[in-house]
Amino acid sequence: MAESSIALASEKINRESDELKIIKAARQDPKVFGELYKLYVEQVFRYLYSRIGYVHDAEDITAQTFLTAFESFDRFRKDEHFASWLFTIARNKAIDHFRQRKNTTSIDEDEDIPVENDPLYGVIQSEQTAALSKLIQALPEEDRDLLRLRFLADMSFPEIAYLLHRNEDAVKKSIYRLLARLHSQLEVSNE
């Protein structure tokens, strides 16, 4: 157990170190920005898809997010968390999308991300998943966004705190309390 925690911490440090090197190189050569794209495109897409609910729209807004980030990269400050800065852009693009469409889509509505010959697909569609989905849909938007940022965007607590202009401990407590509440509600619904 301790070895896996150490390995995860080491992996995170390596990722952060690599990210800082890429950012520095991208400041010198804009072509290197593509490496930041590779690091974050999947996380940004998952986050946007969970907010918007349509694959095509999420892909378009993901592209818009990275285009805006590329065009304004010179305004990115070194003391910021890159992921927080990038997801601020993604959140704003999603808000713009909803303003233009004047409708909202819940976290688990409409189309699914295509699953290609995945034998676990049927298992994922279990009753427990449906119950959890209903519980998540009943959450306030702020709570759903915390879950999206943590689990779909795979952001760290400091990155989420920076993005939301909140204290890191407050973010941790909010997420852990939210997970505990979902867990207890799920247990009650399974009885």
Describe what you observe in this structure.
- This protein is mainly α.
- The chain has helices at 2-28, 33-52, 55-71, 82-101, 121-124, 127-137, 141-152, 157-164, 168-190.
- The longest helix is centred in the first third of the chain and has 27 residues, at 2-28.
- It is globular and about 60 Å long.
- The protein starts with a helix and ends with a helix.
Tell me which oligomeric state these chains represent.
single chain
DSSP strand count: 0
Largest β sheet strand count, sense and barrel closure = none
Shape: globular
Strand content range: under 5%
| Secondary-structure element string | HHHHHHHHH
- pLDDT < 50 stretches: 103-113
- Rounded to the nearest angstrom, the radius of gyration is 18 Å
Structural class: mainly alpha
Q: Average the pLDDT over all residues and give the rounded result.
A: 80
The total of helices stands at 9
Query: How helical, in percent, are the residues?
Result: over 70%
Could you give the distance between the termini?
31 Å
Brief overview:
The chain is 74% helix and 0% strand. It is mainly alpha-helical and 191 residues long.
Label this structure with key terms.
globular
List the helices and strands and how they pair.
Layout: H1 2-28, H2 33-52, H3 55-71, H4 82-101, H5 121-124, H6 127-137, H7 141-152, H8 157-164, H9 168-190
